[in-house]
Amino acid sequence: MPVALYALALGGFGIGLTEFVIMGLLPEVAADFGVTETVAGYLISGYALAVAIGAIIFTAVLSRLDRKKSLLFLMLLFIIGNLLSATGPTYEIVMVGRIVAALCHGAFFGIGSVVAADLVADNKRAGAISFMFAGLTIANVLGVPFGTLLGQATGWRSAFWAITAIGVVALVGIMLLVPGNLARSGNKGIFGEFGIFRSPQVWLSMIVTILGYGGMFGAFTYIAFTLTGVSGFAASSVPWLLVLFGLGLFAGNILGGKAADRNLAATLITVLSILTVVLVAFALTADNKVATIIALVLMGGIGFATVPGLQMRIMNHAAHAPTLASGANIAAFNVGNALGAWAGGLTIAAGLGYTSPLWAGAAITVAGLAVMLIATRVRGGEYAKSRTSASVPITV
After folding, report:
1. CB atoms within 10 A of CB 27
2. Do 85 and 97 meet the contact criterion of CB atoms below 8 Å apart?
3. Residue 79 and residue 103: Cα distance in Å, rounded?
4. Alpha carbon distance 396, 394 (integer Å)
5. How far is residue 70 from each of residues 14, 45, 76, 360, measured CA to CA in Å?
6. pLDDT tens, position by position, for the chain (396 residues)?
7. Nearest CA-CA partner of 27 in 45, 14, 16, 39
8. CB neighbours of residue 198 within 10 Å
9. At what angle do helices 200-221 and 306-316 cross, to 10 degrees?
10. Could you give the CA distance from residue 351 to residue 358 in angstroms, rounded to a whole number?
11. Distance from CA of residue 384 to its chain's centroid?
12. What 8-state DSSP symbol labels residue 194?
């Protein structure tokens, strides 16, 4: 893999930490600012909303800059946002810091996906995207547990100081390692780029992303309740069980990228089908600890195996503006997160128990599979074109 991909992956690692590390530090944040845990939780939901907005708007605005300059600007914004979070004397300023950091999230992964794909041969593009996203998965495996321990031992602000330092290293890495002769993110202007949304396949790709990824995330959102309330694990075991989940994410991301390079459409259909089976099996065997551990790893692995392919598909179907399409798909991932969490919460509120989010996730995933099957057959779809590979050159 080109060395520039390591700089992109490090940026993804820092962004992953920013998104998730706060989850383990909410009690400390709430106590420090004298707010309820619910109010402290807005630091998570506010971040997610800003990601969805920034993914489209920032990606479109940055279409006038070359891609390396865009990535450097976004990483600088990331550093500023985390500095505000690390030093903010009030809850409101910390919230501003979270929003500033979040605005760069979607655009960084959106533009970074295109850069990663352009750094390698056509038949390795999904693999390059998965390599960049490996930083995000490593953040779940190692960064979040250790960031939480650091924040608990030396104060929650120390975690954001550490993330800021990672951002500085990533900024220098991008400056030194990413080629400076990259094309602009687009050549049709802001409004010209938005023309991709006239394509039915772009919308279908985004819907598959929302449903396919939302099903897994909805099940994951309430997994701590499932592990303690159904499987019988102690609360102290949950962080280490989530490390196993993160290992599944890492492996699934890499393997999913390699499979998508061989046959994108077939990979997505197969993975979504297997994910449905895994979620159903998990729901049926959640009272067994051994089965739960196996299902947890598989849920992470199979669920994240969709990510490189989902990202590659929308870029293929928006060849004249792949950067904006890529950013829009990052927004779709976050909409899927919200949808899955909302659906899982509804089932628990209805008294259906702590395995009900798994059933809800399976239902949402089936819907995503159905849309994917339709998308491949309608005009512009992979099998409608009588081809089984979606390795279409990305040009701008």
Report:
1. 12
2. yes
3. 12
4. 7
5. 17, 26, 10, 39
6. 788 999 999 999 999 889 878 876 777 888 899 988 668 878 877 887 888 888 878 877 776 678 888 899 999 999 999 999 999 999 999 999 999 999 988 889 888 888 888 888 878 887 888 888 888 778 877 776 777 778 878 989 999 999 999 999 999 999 999 887 765 544 555 556 677 778 889 999 999 999 998 898 888 878 878 898 899 998 778 778 888 888 898 899 889 988 988 898 999 999 999 999 999 999 999 999 999 999 999 999 999 899 888 988 988 887 777 777 877 888 888 888 778 878 888 888 889 999 999 999 999 999 999 999 999 988 777 777 544 343 333 332
7. 39
8. 8
9. 160
10. 14
11. 29
12. G
- Global confidence as pTM: 0.76
In the chain, % helix, strand, coil (3-state, to 5) comes to: 85, 0, 15
Which residues does residue 66 pair with via DSSP β-bridges, in sequence order? 184
How would DSSP label each residue in 52-98?
Answer: HHHHHHHHHHGGGSBHHHHHHHHHHHHHHHHHHHHH-SSHHHHHHHH
Closest CA to 143 of 165, 172, 126, 128: 165
Q: Kindly tell me the number of DSSP H helices and DSSP E strands found in the chain.
A: 17, 0
Q: What gap in Å lies between CA 315 and CA 395, rounded to an integer?
A: 10
**Closest by Cα among 266, 312, 341 to 125:** 312
Give residue 231's pLDDT: 92
Angle at which helix 264-285 crosses helix 306-316, to 10 degrees, equals 150
Provide the token pair at 244: 């196993």
User: Nearest 5°: phi and psi at 90?
Assistant: -130, 160
Alpha-carbon gap, residue 389 to 267, rounded angstroms:
10
Q: Are 12 and 107 in contact (CB under 8 A)?
A: no
Of 337, 326, 328, give the one whose Cα is nearest residue 56: 328
Length of the chain: 396
Please give the Cα distance from 144 to 243 (Å, whole number).
9
For residue 125, what are the contacts with CB-CB under 8 A and spacing of at least 6? 116, 117, 261, 312, 391, 394
Six-digit token pair at 150?
């650091």
Contact 214, 337 (CB under 8 A): yes
- Closest among 314, 317, 282 to 301, alpha carbons compared: 282
Q: Quick one: CA dihedral 179, 180, 182, 184, positive or negative?
A: positive
CB 45 within 8 A of CB 179: no
